[in-house]
Amino acid sequence: MGLLPTRVNWAARASLCEQCPLRRVHRGVSYCGQPFFENVNRDPVTDGCGCPTRAKAKDPAEHCPLSARYTAATTTPDGHCNCKWCASTASTLS
Q1: Measured distance between the N- and C-terminal CA atoms of the chain, rounded to whole angstroms
Q2: For 23-42, what is each residue's pLDDT tens digit?
Q3: Which of helix, strand or coil describes residue 75?
Q4: Is 5 a residue whose pLDDT tops 90?
Q5: Which residues are CB-contacts of 82 (< 8 A; sequence separation ≥ 6)?
Q6: How far apart are CA 10 and CA 5, in angstroms?
Q7: d(Cα 93, Cα 19) in Å, to the nearest integer?
């Protein structure tokens, strides 16, 4: 309905997800790894987070669980994130 906030560059974020080796398609929906309820006990770095990639990319509060080097993404105390999405955004701003 368009009532929830949407990330401005969500299409670029979703595009990164579509290229990720963790991406899985289940019943026509793209997921970060297997859907969450099919693998509840997971390591986000090796299994993905289980979220639908398009919805995750649209949510301004979400971040990719991986860094550009496919290690666990981290956020510094001052709020800087090294996830694939934030690193991609930072590189396009440079």
Answers
A1: 35
A2: 999 999 999 999 998 888 99
A3: strand
A4: no
A5: 67, 68, 73, 74, 75
A6: 11
A7: 21
Place of tokens 């289940």: 26
Residue closest to 24 by CA, chosen among 51, 58, 62: 51
- Measuring CA to CA, how many Å separate 69 from each of 45, 66, 72, 83, 94? 11, 8, 9, 9, 19
Q: With H, G, I as helix, E, B as strand and everything else as coil, classify residue 36.
A: helix
Residues whose CB falls within 8 Å of the CB of residue 84, separated by 6 or more in sequence, listed in order: 16, 20, 64, 66, 67, 68, 73
Query: Residue 23 is encoded by which pair of tokens?
Result: 């991406």
Look-up of token digits 């963790």: 22
